[in-house]
Amino acid sequence: MSTEQHWITTPLTEELVRGALDLERTERGLLPHRLPAWARAQCADGQLAMAESQPSGVRLVFRTAATAVELDVVATKRVYEGAPARPDGMYDLVVDGRFAARAGVTDGDVVTIDMAAGSVRMNPGPVRTLRFTGLAGQDKRVEIWLPHNETTRLVALRTDAPVAAAPQDGKRVWLHHGSSISHGSNAAHPTAIWPALASARGGVELVNLGFGGSALLDPFTARTMRDTPADLLSVKVGLNLVNTDLMRLRAFGPAVHGFLDTIRDGHPTAPLLVVSPIYCAIHEHTPGPSAVDPSGMATGRLSFTATGDPARTAEGQLTLTVIRDALSRIVEQRAADDPNLHYLDGRELYGEADYAELPLPDELHPDAATHARMGERFAALAFGSGGPFGGV
Questions:
Q1: Residues 318, 322, 326, CA angle at the centre, nearest 5°?
Q2: Distance CA 19, CA 37 (A)
Q3: Which of 139, 183, 131, 175 is nearest to 157 (CA)?
Q4: Least enclosed by CB within 10 Å: which of 22, 76, 181, 259?
Q5: In angstroms, rounded to a whole number, what is the distance separating the alpha carbons of residues 184 and 57?
């Protein structure tokens, strides 16, 4: 922590935080959440708790003439027994809409996960300081995008000039829900996840409810979307329902209808885009659940395989092909009375030809290059001329 007298400490308040739906004040700092407390109380699942506390799309936003900025944080590092070490989460500095710098911290709280034993242990770590220096001395809009894949407590913000909350600039708000792919798995840094790239190209403010392993048509997520102010909404659903083997086709259709009904209770006429899964070879025709491929672990590579029986689709077990067919029918049916409801086949973002060129490294999640491709394509298809989010 810096001790120079010219530093100004600014209280961390909700006026400075964008993209979070709740801010929890803890003994070790301000913890952004992407689900409100009432929703978190309705599900004790550890995977969801981890995912929603990872601040994908969350950023500090303020105006200042400071030439230097310091942010004290407590990062949460995840270690998976037997798997390669995960890269440190990154913090992206964006000044007046342009990327300016990137930094990270190498330690913090450490959570060690043994997937085989089903055990988790946590060792507390230190507060660390991020420093961004050499900024221009005039008034500017500063954004610090928090790591998309690393739970982060915000402890203190210091600058060498006063800070003011940045006024809303009239941009439309895009509220998106999806799986780990929307969360940003395997992206290199927080402004490089595909929803962040698409929002930048589309000129909108992102609220990202992409939850790794947890896009499961949960009613509390639908109610959260219902209650969150937004101009544009999208739901990307399917992969987690297959790779958790959570439900059968009989339950899937009514669950999708109920999810969309709830969103429409709060956003009756806003453009609403339903996005089906991207191409994923292991689950195109084979049901879940997914499992870690032991042959990959033996070589230090984390990869997944499908363990279901394709013959069981006749009994209603879900595959990505089954889900795409069902989603397209549901949207077509509802769009007859809801002209602002739209459908996008996820294979237009990443299809079989893309898989041949840019295979999914672990057979489930895209890499950095694929996130870039998906962000560009989504922006063109959704925000471009004739797209469901086009217009002013």
A1: 115
A2: 15
A3: 131
A4: 22
A5: 9
